[in-house]
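S., here's the first fold you wanted:
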Amino acid sequence: MDSILIQGGVALQGKVRIQGSKNASLPILAATLLVRESSFIRNCPRIRDVYSMISLLRSLGCSVNWQENGVYVDSSAVTKGEIGSEAVTGMRSSLCLLGALIGRCGQVVMEYPGGCVIGERPIDMHLSALRQMGVEFCEKEGRLQAAAKKLRGAHIVLPFPSVGATENVLLTAVKAEGDTVLEGAALEPEITALCRYLQCCGASIEGVGTDCLTIRGGSALYGADFEVPADRIVAGTYLFSCIGTGGNILLENAPWEEMTAVLETAEQMGGRLCTSREGLYVQAAARPLAVPCIRTQPYPGFPTDLQSVALAVAAVGDGESMIRETIFENRFRIAEDLRRMGADLKEQGADTMLVSGVEALKGAEVEARELRGGAALVTAGLMARGETKVTGCRYIFRGYENICRDFRELGARVTSA
């Protein structure tokens, strides 16, 4: 099933429960390598990237078993730090295995990580940070090799709040000798979730939720029972889809406390929002309003992972909107497909898109080329008149458990093919 068919023009109604976070699950699963016991990771989403990570863990010697409400991981038998190529080159988040395996085995041999084609995303920052902790790197036959005779704490300052680099420092530092102070750490909720899991396992980490973390290395780590938080990007996708179709929905379990910039943009688009213990209630206007400027930024700013879906909704907004992408250079890859659906989009340099809202999009055959852009094309299909076919949906399934089922629960006419 690599295609999604959508009969558009139906306002979303009803409620849907938000799945566990992809971006939190993957580094937490990697972190189980640091524990020589079993951990139970609750609310772990059943998505392709998680399956790929589990396949990698099993290849390293972990025993991994799914339960109805989570997954058990026992890494007691792991002895090697060499991992295969297939899943690594197809999943950028496998890079967090670098820090985890150095912490566990003292050495790593792996392919350079891949993933969605949304920008260069160099790993120099990761390597520079870990070198300060005693890790030596080299390249042999196109593979990245890393080794550390002795991990030591360090004072590390990141030039940019990279989520991946922050994760790798955390995963390495908990096994290093001495204290590590990390300045310029990423603030994303997924970093907080990783810190909380490591703390549940016995790690000493101070400053959680701030941009300065102090990790006291060398603590014995043990297994833990931990629940992955809900996925703020999935919640944002469904929120903007409601804004675009003019519906009323309840996003159960939505982590609205982590979505301030997203909620502000949704309200600017005319949405009426109400938060409660149940989640997030969304009531959309008949037509979205234009937003003068949406600018992606590191957390707590507007997330780059929701830029594409915001662009799709702005395409039918009442007036002109400006979208500025400051994180990745290839996030406007869906512009060609949106134009095929009738959107009026004009590039204003490499990082800015001027959007002149049209009354309605029209159905067309479009192609997903990366995860978040693919989900945005599904949103565009929900808003469009007529039938839309989205191909290349293997990308979408990397991050959404069952996007067709979820939208059907909200009344949309969506099927996979």
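And the second, which I think is the more interesting of the pair:
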Amino acid sequence: MQIETIDHVGIRVANLDRAMTFYELFGFRVIHKADNDPVAVVKNAEDVELNLVFNANDDNDGENILMDIPTKYPGFTHIAFRVNSILETVKILRANNITITQGPVKFGRDGHVSVFVRDPDRNTLEFRGREEDLSAIGGVATYENEN
């Protein structure tokens, strides 16, 4: 077997309309809703596919169990989207009042910079692009592992 690429990512959300208000900012549109499951297939113009599974329990007091509590459970912690410009991404995030929870930050020496945000259900998204002049938005921090 040879894995060629990621086909799609499933993201559990509590409310599909609320989630789509957020994901539409990044070009995602509902392509199909399953008849027998609470799943909406969403894609953007570049054919990136997410499956929004809209059956999440919404009593987590605004926390993501995988990221926001001291006990570390196994599971997927975030999804990283490659973007064509971190500068433009940050401008879009700020224009839409989306809080950047980390970044812009440079990890290592590979020439990439990332910003992290949370969707309305506190799922973590990373936007990652080539390093560029970000002085207009405050520059770039370098990640230092604290462990």
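Why I say that: The first helix runs from residue 16 to 23. The mean pLDDT is 89.

Talk tomorrow,
H.
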